[in-house]
Amino acid sequence: MKDKxxxxxxxxxxxxxxxxxxxxxxxxxxxxxxxxxNLFQDYPYKLNKKQIEIFKKEQPFWAxxxxxxx
Length: 70
Hints:
Blueprint: E1 4-7, E2 16-20, E3 28-30, E4 36-38, H1 39-42, H2 49-58, H3 60-65
Antiparallel strand pairs: 1-2, 2-3, 3-4
């Protein structure tokens, strides 16, 4: 993850957000610092059941935003 930085919105969160100074239009996140998900392309399709559960708890705004995706 060259030139990408990880940060958490709240201490204790399991989701790390990815900051890339060179790519300001993409919103990415990770649970483990290895597998990076693109918010608009991958949620909820590429997340497992546990990851979706965590995401809904920690990111209710985005979970509701994508609620029509099933």
